[in-house]
Amino acid sequence: MILVDTSVWIAYWQEASSVKNLQENLMAKRILGHEWVFGEMMVGNLGPQRNRLLADYLKLPRGELYPISQLYDFVEKHNLKGSGASLIDIQLLYACVVETHVLWTLDRVLNRLAKRFSLSFID
């Protein structure tokens, strides 16, 4: 499965060519959501389509939520402190590591970390 970061969803809704294959992957049921990505979108400005976009997102299968203690151990084990990653980035990255998904992101820091773990989705 492909866990899709908020940055990709935003680009998709803005019809960016860099994420043109998202629709194809959605139709093939290869896309995975995450509660924290939903949370970022929930508090963001999605425009007049907000309610429909959020309702559609909730129909996706989702990756697991992991407790902060596991995220802490992951950060310490892999020396991720000071990497520039946010807590949300670490949650998504860890979910991909544990559940063996790939991560699709346009975020420079998160993509660098995904590549480090051989989890980066290459379109």
Task: Offer a few descriptive terms.
123 residues, Rossmann fold, 3-stranded parallel beta sheet, 3 strands, mainly alpha, globular
Q: Which CATH architecture would you pick?
A: 3-Layer(aba) Sandwich
Whole-number radius of gyration? 14 Å
Counting DSSP E segments of at least 2 residues, the number of strands comes to: 3
Helix content: 40-55%
List unreliable stretches of 5+ residues.
none
Total domain units: 1
**Distance between the terminal alpha carbons, to the nearest Å?**
14 Å
CATH class: Alpha Beta
Q: Would you list the SSEs in sequence order as H and E?
A: EHHEHHHHEH
Tally of alpha and pi helices: 7
Q: β content, as a range?
A: 5-15%
| Protein structure class | mainly alpha
Query: What's the overall geometry?
Result: globular
Biggest pleated sheet: 3 strands, parallel
Mean pLDDT: 95
Report on the structure:
It contains seven helices and three strands. With 123 residues, it is mostly helical. Strands 2-1-3 form a three-stranded parallel beta sheet. The longest helix is centred in the C-terminal third of the chain and has 13 residues, at 87-99. It is globular and about 40 Å long.
Task: Chart the SSEs and their pairings.
Layout: E1 2-4, H1 6-13, H2 22-27, E2 31-32, H3 35-43, H4 50-57, H5 68-77, H6 87-99, E3 102-104, H7 108-116
Parallel strand pairs: 1-2, 1-3
